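U., I forgot to send this yesterday:
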Amino acid sequence: MSLQQSKSLLKHTRIVLAPGLSSEEIAVIESRFGMHFPPDYRALLMDVLPISDDFVDWRHGDLIAIQRQFAWPYDGICFDIEHNDFWLPKWGPRPTNLTEAFAIVAHAVQQAPALIPICGHRYIPATPNESGNPIFSVYQTDIIYYGRDLLEYLENELSRAVFGEQRYQISEPVKVISFWSYLVDVNNGQIADDSV
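Result:
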């Protein structure tokens, strides 16, 4: 699916679309949040900016709300550690003190590629800074792929509005993203290599 097809999908929904971001706006946003949009997401945002239905309004959105979206993956993992006895063996023995446990998680998340919010709890990794990164659906440690890449994600996300039925397809192969793909494997009951 091309960028034009993605734009067409967005136009066939009730999602409000604003003019795309300028290069200057992109630079300000990237500086403000300390990240770089991958090229495919950047191209979409420069072409058209979805601003409703939980899509991040990068131009006029509430900065504190966007910062909370950036923190959501870490906060969700911490919630499951505190309330659902979640712990990864690769982190070593689980501390009895929650503050120490959260510090281990903070370190793991800081070492992992940053997740950039797209819509609700759907995220694209900032690195590698190339097109074709998978989209993750992140709800606490219930983390799954929601698209092999940005274009497949949009088709999955918007299929009900466009086609009248929910479609969900993850094409293979999916690019492996450090830490986050490991959590997908854990969520799917697969034991992933600790080097992932």
